[in-house]
């Protein structure tokens, strides 16, 4: 893949020099088209994508457009104009409009403001670098699939970290239960159409939450099946980190995985491959559209765990620029929560 990309890059530059005769460049074009088609087929195999002939032509068209975009971005990166790289990940055959429509359904909900708030600033010392993965506090990267359940994955990620902090290792909890069971009168969540982490924490504190193997993920909305499960973990509420307070954010992040909302719009986030993501974006509360998990920081970035599988970003993670703007990169300081788990509070039936 990498080698192929370089070949295409070389050809693109060659074609761009304008020194080729017309007929030669036509030959060159169809050669390029063939090479790209091969790249596309390899990519399809890698990501298990199969389409009808009609859709395949359409998808290939989008793939080509994204490929061009990635190559141009790569040139800018190599010229020192960008701090991060893009790549042809599993979302590379979606137009940016499709990507946003499928994956970015999450919205901010201000009903949650009444909860206990962590303000920080009490002069505590925090490390310069934190990566909770090194402390065994971060569970494996998951893939939400074609369902707008990012919020359930963000919530489960921080619930699992809270368990690990209490010495409960290797427990995976059920995103599907949160997806299916936080609809209706008491909760405002709407499954694959988006939901709320604070509601997930409230739900897991009131009802407990099943382990994943007893309530498996199917990436679509179902009736709530919590009654059929046996092994459940009950939590003890959650803490809200004060909005727009980078000091409180860091202090909380030095100890806990944090569920956060961000504005993930745009092709740069869609095709992010590695490096420090610094793409300009609107960080207003109304612009937040994706939920994700903060699991560390460094002087120049926050480390976030996404739920789009291992092929996206840095093996499922993204380093988000740590900027002085109050709202943080893409609004990351706006909506920040983490759950509480006290030992011995679980019901194991
Ligand atoms: C996210 O930021 C981008 C760049 O500023 C903006 O175009 C987009 O509208 C924002 N997303 C939302 C949902 O507001
Ligand atoms: C937690 O449960 C274990 C086993 O049931 C018990 O031995 C221990 O004392 C309990 N700890 C607390 C803090 O209640």
UniProtKB/TrEMBL annotation:
<dbReference type="Pfam" id="PF00112">
    <property type="entry name" value="Peptidase_C1"/>
</dbReference>
<feature type="domain" description="Cathepsin propeptide inhibitor">
    <location>
        <begin position="40"/>
        <end position="99"/>
    </location>
</feature>
<dbReference type="InterPro" id="IPR000668">
    <property type="entry name" value="Peptidase_C1A_C"/>
</dbReference>
<dbReference type="GO" id="GO:0006508">
    <property type="term" value="P:proteolysis"/>
</dbReference>
<keyword id="KW-1015">Disulfide bond</keyword>
<dbReference type="GO" id="GO:0008234">
    <property type="term" value="F:cysteine-type peptidase activity"/>
</dbReference>
<keyword id="KW-0865">Zymogen</keyword>
<dbReference type="InterPro" id="IPR000169">
    <property type="entry name" value="Pept_cys_AS"/>
</dbReference>
<protein>
    <recommendedName>
        <fullName>Papain family cysteine protease</fullName>
    </recommendedName>
</protein>
<dbReference type="InterPro" id="IPR039417">
    <property type="entry name" value="Peptidase_C1A_papain-like"/>
</dbReference>
<feature type="domain" description="Peptidase C1A papain C-terminal">
    <location>
        <begin position="126"/>
        <end position="340"/>
    </location>
</feature>
<feature type="signal peptide">
    <location>
        <begin position="1"/>
        <end position="25"/>
    </location>
</feature>
<keyword id="KW-0732">Signal</keyword>
<dbReference type="InterPro" id="IPR013128">
    <property type="entry name" value="Peptidase_C1A"/>
</dbReference>
<dbReference type="Pfam" id="PF08246">
    <property type="entry name" value="Inhibitor_I29"/>
</dbReference>
<dbReference type="InterPro" id="IPR013201">
    <property type="entry name" value="Prot_inhib_I29"/>
</dbReference>
